[in-house]
Amino acid sequence: MANSHIGSSFDDFLEETGVLAETNAVAIKRVIAWEIQQKLEQEHLSKTKMAQMMNTSRAALDRLLDPNNTSITLHTLDNAAKALGKTLRLELI
């Protein structure tokens, strides 16, 4: 019996099982949360100070830093980028 998955990619498998979009969203969010956390540590910024720089609440920043919470807005991402001296760039491929 031939294996129908030989030669296919892991992305193909995830797409077939219907979890590709969710998996990609979680992966992207984890990278963003990690990068922001690294910047906070490098700059010795507290969460309270970062929230003030973003003009948001500490709770909103905690959601942004939660690697499993993918419910963030572009506005929040843009504010975080600006607060860290970066720009947000999105791309559809």
TrEMBL record:
This is Fis family transcriptional regulator. GO terms for molecular function: DNA binding.
